[in-house]
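Consortium newsletter contribution from the modelling node. Members have asked for a concrete example of what our holo predictions look like. Here is one, prepared for the magnesium ion complex that several groups have been discussing at recent meetings.
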Amino acid sequence: MRIVSVETELISMKLKKPFKTALRQVSVADALIVKLTADTGDIGYGSASPTAVITGDTNESIEGAIKNYIAPSVVGMDIEELEAIMRKVESSAVHNTSAKAAVDIALYDLFAKRFNIPLYRLFGGARKEIESDITISVNSPEEMAADAINYVKNGYKTLKTKVGVDGKLDIRRVKAIRDAVGPDVQLRLDANQGWTPKEAIKTIRAMEDQGFDIELVEQPVKAIDIEGLKYITSNVETPIMADEALFSPHDCFILLKERAADILNIKLMKCGGLHNAQKINAMAESCGVECMIGCMIESKVGIAAAAHFAGGKLNITRADLDAVDLIEKEPISGGVELSKNKLILSDGAGLGIKNIDFDGGAFDE
Ligand SMILES: C[C@H](N)C(=O)N[C@@H](CCC(=O)O)C(=O)O
Ligand SMILES: [Mg+2]
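And here is the predicted structure:
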């Protein structure tokens, strides 16, 4: 099964409500869909999302990297030589992790189709239902509490609360949510690099003292500040998760060696796809560190790939794959179906994507 062409198409999907973090605000989810076609007519789908404030990748850079660097390195290759193809993708350009992830996902979709099995079974077949949290954008304490109540009504048991915009106000935000939802809902926080190390320790300790019962805090400080991250991890009781500090398998090695975080957040757009995600998860597991699978504001193709990965691996103990529930009108069918707070994986071959609607047409299986 040889790869004969690589096509890309941009889709823009309106969000149900603006998504706001300490780093950015966005109302539309853009995704560059990749379609790999093999000489047998089989198709592999992938997807990349531009999150310039985190990965540095934009729609234009993703499209350019795929067209001019990554696609020429995979066309003509036999999908059964997956390891060799991955080396080519990796060495086609440095960085550009979102573009690499899109092609990597499409390659794994095609590879699993070649052997006619669902992708999660290829990764280990641990489970076919993944429970996700849902994100509460950073807003006023009152608006965040109202959002929290709605999400709990819709079946969510874990709320990922965005903070990182003023430590003192963040305490009021989290208090309002805890008071609104009661003690049985799990709360995790994501500061998206918004605090200094000292502010993080002060804020997290205050939340501990007030009994907010926080499951974990994600990326409290700047991505490059590994010492600061380690300082926080060693000085609070609440578990700390690395997100923007973890892109590559090498970043994972440093975080594990330094014991800078308690838990790791793997995202395909940061690490360059499923190939590196497996390396990161294996390294973490061998050091006794659990991983969460996360996402950007992504298409259902990217979410399906991440969910299939989580479905294969027992060391992925948490999922933040809520983008699929933030989009107003879903243009993609198959891959994964949302049932309240659970993602149910497709048993079709590969990702199980059935159809992708674009404004002017469709990619059909
Ligand atoms: C969407 C997901 N719940 C999430 O919060 N992801 C990122 C931010 C992604 C973005 O800005 O698109 C995270 O920091 O965990
Ligand atoms: Mg995060």
